[in-house]
Specification:
With 247 residues, the chain is α/β, with parallel strands linked by helices. It folds into two domains: 62 residues, no CATH class; 172 residues, Ribokinase (UDP-N-acetylmuramoyl-L-alanine:D-glutamate ligase, 3-Layer(aba) Sandwich). 38% of the residues lie in helices and 19% in strands. It has eight helices and ten strands. The protein is globular. The two termini are 31 Å apart.
């Protein structure tokens, strides 16, 4: 697993690199820029809902050339997971390069943007939350909006709906997959956990339905704990929860 991005030459950048090394994440393609490391400031209410203010910092410095170097050795069938905390032109370049190389391109369109258009024609899996979905589809209607997005070339659309689960449309079929029931403590990082787990499952050869069930379990375990990094579950816990759901 490799991470591509930019961090600053500050203590937050140092901490990020130490974390990736400790987790076995390849960080060769993380560039250190003159900007400060991107930061997020999180407010969580008593029900676990959150509001996040983001200062992108070095994230804004990620260039198309950085992506080109990182994907030069990518293999067909590997998974490319993208999000929008970096410039849209860089994301679009990554989508095009990943698609040409036969990668499975997953785009988590967060945070939502109404600026430069996204190149959705080459996106295999699109994973917006409800508000991001409304912005992209131009409607909150799940069935109508997901049909519209697939009409733009998206392979499958997965709309994350919090405690309601995930609404999926792929190949003319649509369905809702509900997550395990947990006591919600802090919803921060749930989308990150969901998308990371989804990418893992697809990389391992799971179909979309099975991958979403795996991702739902990872997201549920994350919201049951406080903060982001400490709440992200190890693989063993996700597998254990899935087994309990199937018993």
């Amino acid at each position: 697993m490799s991470f591509v991005g930019c961090v600053g030459r500050d203590r937050f950048g140092d901490a990020a690199l130490r974390l990736w090394r400790s987790e076995g994440v390849e960080s060769t393609h993380v560039r250190r820029s003159a900007s400060h490391t991107g930061l997020g400031f999180v407010i969580v209410d008593r029900k676990g809902a959150n509001a996040i203010s983001v200062d992108p910092g070095a994230n804004s410095d990620l260039q198309e050339s950085d992506v080109g170097r990182a994907l030069a050795g990518s293999s067909r069938g590997s998974v490319l997971l993208l999000q929008l905390e970096v410039p849209v032109k860089t994301v679009n370049a990554a989508i095009r390069l990943g698609s040409r190389r036969g990668m499975v391109v997953i785009l988590n369109p967060a945070p939502s943007t109404t600026g430069s258009p996204l190149d959705l024609r080459r996106v295999d899996v699109l994973t917006p939350n409800a508000s991001e979905f409304s912005t992209l589809a131009g409607t909150p209607d799940l069935r109508r909006g997901t049909r519209k997005l697939l009409g733009k070339g998206v392979g499958a659309t997965i709309v994350t709906l919090g405690e309601r689960g995930a609404f999926v449309r792929e190949h003319g079929e649509s369905y809702l997959l509900r997550p395990p029931r947990v006591k919600v403590v802090d919803t921060t990082g749930a989308g990150d956990a969901f998308n990371g787990a989804l990418a893992v499952a697809l990389a391992e050869g799971s179909n979309v339905r099975a991958a979403v069930e795996f991702a739902n379990a990872a997201g549920a375990l994350t919201v049951a704990k406080r903060e982001v990094i400490p709440a992200l579950p190890p693989r063993s816990q996700v597998d254990s929860l899935l087994r309990k759901m199937q018993d």
